[in-house]
Structure prediction request, 397 residues.
Amino acid sequence: MNRKFSDVFFKHLVSIVALFSVLALGAILLFVFAQGSAPFFTSTASGIRLVAQRIDEITVNGVLYKNHNTFIDIPKNTEIINISFPVGDVINIFEIKIDTKEKDAEKCLSFTHNNEVEITYPEAYVYTVSWPSAIAALQKRIHVILPEPPYNFGKFLSGLEWRPSRDKVFGIFPMIAGTLLASLGAILLGVPIALLCALFMAEFLKPKAASGIRAGIELLAGIPSVVYGFFGLMVIVPFIRTVFNIPSGNTLLSAIIVLALMILPTVITIAETSLRAVPLSVREASLSLGASRMQTAWKVVLPHANSGVIAGVILGISRAVGETMAVILVAGNSPQLTINPLASVRTLTSTIAMEMGYASGRHSEMLFSIGVTLFSIILILNSVILWYRRRMYAQEL
Prediction:
C-alpha cells in the first residue's frame, strides 16, 4: 500500500513539475517574442511626451506640474502645446505648434517663445529646448520627445548601419553576417578536429588512457566562457597581431579560433560517447571481412554513430552562435560588413550584452528583436541539419 501510494505521489509530482516547467518556458518565449515584435507594429508612444529638466514648476496646457521627474504625456492629435514656468519674477512662455500631417520629424514642430532660447535637434525624434544661463550645468531644459513610428522589418534585417542613439537606425545585417561567419569558421575548424579526437579515443586508445583524457575534456567543457575569452585576449589576439602585422588582433579570425576551442569539448564528448556505444559485433563483422582497424573506424563505426555525432555538431553550432563573453573580448565589436578574417566584427549576442544595460525605449525593444533573430537563426540551422540527417537515413534505407 505504501509503495503504491509513493508511486502515485511521485508520478503526480513529476507531472506537475513538468507542466510548470513547460508553462514557464512558454511564458518566457512568449514574452521575448512579444517584446521583439513590438517595434515593428506599434509606436513608442501614443503622442508627444515632454521631460522638464531643472524646472520645479511648469504649466502645460493649463495643467500645473510640480517637481515632475517623469514624462508629461500630451494627448494624441494635440495641435498646440502651451508651456510656461517662472524664473524669478519672469514667466517664460513657450508654444509648440504641431503639424499632424507632416511625416518628417524635423519639420513637424514649430516654436514660439518670449525669451531667448536655444533649440537643438541632437537625435531623431527628440528636440531639446534650453534657456541660456551663466552656468551651463544650471540651464533649464525641456526635451520634446516625438513618438517613433513602427520600424520597417526589412530595413531591420537588411540595414547596414547600427546607430541607436543618434539617428535611431537599427540595421543588423553586419551583425548577422559576423555571427554566421564566426560560427561557420569555428565549425569548419573545430568539428573535424573534434571528430578525429573522438574517433581516436574510442577506437585506438587504450581504455585507461582514454578514461583519463575523457575526464580532462569534460573538465574543459565546464570552464566558463569568459576564461576562454581571457585566454584568447592574452594569447591568440597578440599572436594574430604579430603574425599578420596588423594594428589590432581583435579580429574575426580570433573569434573563430576561440569559438573552435570552446566547442571542441562538447563535440568530442558527445561524439566519443556515441562511437563507444556502437555494438562490438559491428566492428567484428567488419574486421572478419578483411577490413583494417582504420577502415572499420572510418567506414563502419563512424557512419553507424552518425546520430550522436550530428547531435554533438548541433550542440556545437548552438554554442558557437550563442556565445557572448568570449566573442566580446576578442572580436573587436565593430558593426561593419566584411568577409576579411583580419577585420573587426560584431555578433548579435555581443550587441545585446554590451547595450542592454543602458538601452531604453525603441533601442531596448530592438535588442529583444535581435534576441528573436538569434533564436530563429539557431532554429533554422538545427532544422537544416536534422533535415539533412533524415535525408541521409532515407537514402540508406
User: Anything to note?
Assistant: The longest strand covers residues 90-98. The chain has two domains: 49-146, 170-396.
